[in-house]
Design brief:
CATH architecture of the largest domain: Beta Barrel
CATH superfamily of the largest domain: RlpA-like domain
Shape: elongated
Strand content: 35-45%
Radius of gyration: 39 Å
CATH topology of the largest domain: Barwin-like endoglucanases
Number of domains: 3
Order of helices and strands: HEEHEEEEEEEEEHEEEEHE
């Protein structure tokens, strides 16, 4: 009789405890009627094996005391069913806004002049880098930077352009200011307006109507459009003013006033700055 009363008391206490947990809204309660499952939890730099009767990943983490932030990632998903040997990985995620000061490079502005020797360069004004303030949204996963997104940018100090004067000669030397938009390495040859370079029947005029000679270059229009201003290091200012049957791809034919000067130039590799007017 006494043993029966004790069994009844124990059953009543267990029932009351379970009822209290359900009534309090306790989630992810392990099912003690299920056999144990062995799973591995990888979180916060730690790897541990746990035996559990939980049915879902969320229940396992809750029972193991692994609490999740709003942005944390869990693989597999919290609702995934538990199986023996399952590895659960928790990635801690946080985001913050970071402000960074970055330099703004200055541009080099080119001006061409007849007052200094062809191809010579004289600095008129030194350049000075500017500064900008960039705000990034940085995402960290387990303490490491996973992504970096620009929110906004503000110029706090404007750059000062470097201005150089470049010697050139010829009737087409420009008086304007230019910026380099492309730099090409090209195979260069030279010509003069006479029949030895242009043929006995040539008119002395180029494809865009300029008089052939110094400052007029023949190019492949597929590489450099006709009419484009150029600066050729060691030569000076030029205009892409003509095309030639032998001028294909990265080749350029530079004009000189005499055949002797053209021969003296010969053939060489040159650096060509493709310009845009300021």
């Amino acid at each position: 009789m006494r043993r029966r009363l004790l069994r009844l008391a124990r059953t009543s206490i267990a029932g009351l405890v379970m009822l209290a947990m359900v009534t309090a809204g306790a989630a992810n309660i392990p099912d003690i009627s299920r056999p144990y499952t062995l799973v591995t939890i990888v979180a916060d730099g730690d790897r541990r094996e746990v035996r559990t009767t939980c049915e879902t990943v969320g229940c396992v983490l809750s029972a193991a005391g692994v609490f999740l932030g709003s942005k944390d990632l869990v693989m597999p998903a919290l609702s995934s069913r538990v199986r023996n040997g399952l590895v659960i990985r928790v990635t801690r995620v946080r985001e913050e806004v970071v402000e960074v000061k970055e330099p703004v490079p200055y541009e080099t502005v080119k001006r061409f002049s007849l007052n200094i020797g062809p191809g010579q360069v004289r600095e008129i004004q030194p350049g000075e880098a500017g500064e900008r303030l960039v705000r990034y949204r940085v995402r960290y996963e387990d303490g490491r930077v996973a992504s970096k997104t620009v929110i906004d940018t503000r110029i706090t100090k404007k750059p000062i352009s470097r201005i150089v004067c470049i010697g050139s000669r010829g009737r087409y030397t420009s008086r304007g200011s230019f910026r380099t938009v492309r730099v090409l390495r090209m195979r260069a040859t030279a010509y003069d307006p006479g029949p030895r370079s242009c043929g006995r029947y040539s008119s002395g005029r180029t494809a865009i109507g300029l008089k052939a000679g110094y400052g007029v270059a023949a190019v492949d229009p597929r590489v450099i459009p006709l009419g484009t201003p150029l600066y050729v290091e060691g030569y000076g200012y030029a205009i892409a003013g003509d095309r030639g049957r032998a001028i294909k791809g990265n080749r350029i034919d530079l004009g000189f006033p005499t055949y002797a000067e053209a021969r003296r130039f010969g053939r060489k590799i040159v650096t060509v700055h493709v310009l845009r007017r300021h």
